[in-house]
Amino acid sequence: MFRLFIRCIVIVVVFLVGTILLFEGILRVKYSSIPITHEYFLTADGMRKSAEYIFEKTQIPVVTEENGYHIAVIGDSFSACGMFVRFTCYPMLIQAMLNNEGKKVTITSYAAGGNNPDRELRFFTDKVLPTHPALVIWQFYANDVWENVLFPTYTISADHQLTKISGAENWAYKRQVFFEKLPMKQFMLRTFVVRFVLRMFEHSRYYYSQGNDEDRIAWGLEKIRLEIEEMNRLAGIYGFKVLYFQIPSQSIYLDDVPPPEYRWIRGHNTQVYTAIEEVLKKQDGYVPVQFTTLTSSESGVLGAASEPVQDRYYMHEDDANILGDKHLNQAGYQVVADHLLNGIHLLTQDSRFQ
User: Do residues 177 and 267 share a domain?
Assistant: First the structure.
């Protein structure tokens, strides 16, 4: 009888292991390496899990009336000034240039690495709007569409309205809760069982966006359009101005035939970048930001070869992002600041700004 019991146990264990191995292959998803469950993401970027926003900044800047004309910046890692301390990013550059013009201005960046328009609008409405900004700079990037799909804090209702959804219902929030309860985290992350459970959380990442990838992209893009409408509505009620702009993805400046591993990101980013630009162009506060090749006359060396955009304005090996998605370097930030400064001068006629 005991031997029969042992055989049954062995059969059950073999069946369970076989089932897990089968489903492990089925559930191997493209985004299994998203590093949100790692402590580095939450500590280095100053983020914490949030039942409202999925993730949010731990430090919220304090702004008072004595700070002068308040400009609030929302966006992702391209606008998060603390991520690359060796560079002076565009909000700081703009503030310095405006102060040099004699204007009493305070620019506060509420941006955070990994942000998306869903979380940016929710965070702005709840935390930034009460600081009474006179001007808002909203930065977009090509991955915003897909980030709106993966980490939604809004969905689109049956009557085509933005509807808030709880961040605590998101797969990434649930996955973070699971991760934080693990003992010996770094060891456990190497085990098959934990990696399998993490993939199970990721398997529900398309809960709110149905259909194929093209349908999901369209859904994420439509949310951006509705979110801009909501920002414009708030601006009309509370009397602030808004500048909208998009950081050009490095991938759109790569050669027509980049290495095979980068072809997908180049095609996707170019498609989505163009689609976001079409939405932004319709806004009164739209600021076009483009990078151009440095000519020999600009370089000061007669007959010198022009420097490719992807090399002149973007980081290189010192940025962990893959080629095509690198962050800006100092030259790139300066170009962005120059474009936005022109936009600010055109848009602001507020007496506080004079």
Answer: no
How much is the pTM?
Answer: 0.83
Element of type H or E holding 155: strand 154-156
- Look at residue 72 and give its three-state secondary structure: strand
Contact 25, 199 (CB under 8 A): no
- pLDDT tens for each residue of 95-143: 999 989 988 888 998 888 888 999 999 999 998 999 899 999 999 999 9
Check residue 114 and give left, alpha or beta (phi > 0: left; psi -120 to 50: alpha): left
Q: Are residues 122 and 261 in the same domain?
A: yes
- Domain shared by 246 and 192, yes or no: no
For residues 87 and 135, state if they share a domain.
Answer: yes
Q: Tokens 């002076």 sit at which residue?
A: 88
Backbone phi, then psi, for 63, in 5-degree steps?
A: -125, 135
Pair type for strands 54-57 and 47-50: antiparallel
Q: How far apart, in whole angstroms, are the C-alpha atoms of residue 292 and residue 273?
A: 17
Q: Cα–Cα distance between 243 and 237 in angstroms, integer?
A: 16
- Cα–Cα distance for residue pair 114/13, rounded to 1 Å: 40
DSSP 246: E
Alpha helices in the chain (DSSP H): 2-26, 39-44, 90-100, 117-123, 144-150, 171-180, 185-188, 192-202, 213-238, 260-280, 296-299, 309-312, 330-347
Supply the range of the domain harboring residue 179: 170-207
CB-based contacts of 154: which residues, under 8 Å, 6+ apart? 118, 121, 122, 162, 163, 164, 165, 223, 226, 227
Q: Structural domain tally of the chain?
A: 2
Quote the CA–CA distance of 119 and 144 in Å, as a whole number: 11
Per residue in 317-350, pLDDT (tens digit) is 778 777 788 899 999 999 999 999 999 998 876 6
Q: Let me know whether 52 and 94 are in one domain.
A: yes
Choose one of 207, 230, 265: the last residue of a domain: 207
